[in-house]
Amino acid sequence: MIWNVWKKETESYFASPLAYVLIGLFSLISGIVFFNLLVTYTDGIQTLPPEYSQQISFVEEVVLKFFANVNFLFLIFIPLITMKLFSEEKRLETLDIYWLSPMKEWQLVFAKYLSALTLVLSLLLMTCVFPLVIWGVGIKDLNLLGSSYLAVVLNACAYISLGLFCSSISGNQIIAALLSILGVMFLWMISWGGHLNSNYIVAEIFTYVGITSHFERLLRGVLGTQDIIYYLSFIFIFSVMTVKSLGRRNW
Questions:
Q1: Nearest to 119 by CA among 151, 74, 59, 86
Q2: Degrees (nearest 5) of the Cα angle 30, 178, 244?
Q3: With contact defined as beta carbons under 8 Å apart, do 88 and 57 qualify?
Q4: Over pLDDT 70: what percentage of the chain?
Q5: Number of domains within the chain
């Protein structure tokens, strides 16, 4: 059942212009971002004396900033991907078809989650040409590239779970997308609040609850157990909330 729903949802993405428009836009924007970062870095080291130009890190100025921008793009693209998964089913009143089958709520959520993740990974696949450029300029640290992709993938997984929940509580796709965007922005703001708070305990709580600090550590190759636990917990909690939201039909 999970396979069938995943196949149906994935085919519905690629049978419509939505997937190709998103992939094209994502590729175009990420390409422009990478090119601008590369040109800015090149111009910067050419205008500085040799003793100062060596202090400018290609990793810091290009690689990490590029993946940080990819994460920012997900703020817009992932809500557009997840907004229809349950909202459209509610609007068309087709969810009852699933309930007439032996399929459980968690199976439906998992299948739709996988279909959204498939499209998101297709977006990321378009960025695989950039590591070749990075490799060409002498940055051959596979651990860095691996941790950078792991960071954006885990963030994407978290955003998808949040987007699915927002889609399950609204019958309007636009509202579902806006709720998802606001939810992600709130997670960012919590992290910023942790840096601004003078109380150490409160600051640590805000920093841990917010998603930014975990993303930044993974982006720099600092793979900690607390970060993996955070992402798994985040995805699990919002997936359970989505299942509970769908289960309200039985109330």
A1: 74
A2: 115
A3: no
A4: 87
A5: 1
| Dist CA 211 CA 224 (whole Å) | 14
Q: Which of 90, 92, 93, 84 is nearest to 112 (CA)?
A: 84
List Cβ neighbours of 40 (8 Å cut-off, separation of 6 or more): 61
Looking at residue 210, the DSSP 8-state letter turns out to be S
Distance CA 38, CA 96 (A): 51
Q: How far apart are CA 87 and CA 172, in angstroms?
A: 6
216 or 138, greater pLDDT: 216
Report which DSSP code applies to 129: H
Which residues span the domain enclosing 137?
2-250
Helix (H, G, I), strand (E, B) or coil at 60: helix
Residue 52 to residue 33: CA distance in whole angstroms: 25
Q: Please name the amino acid found at residue 124.
A: L
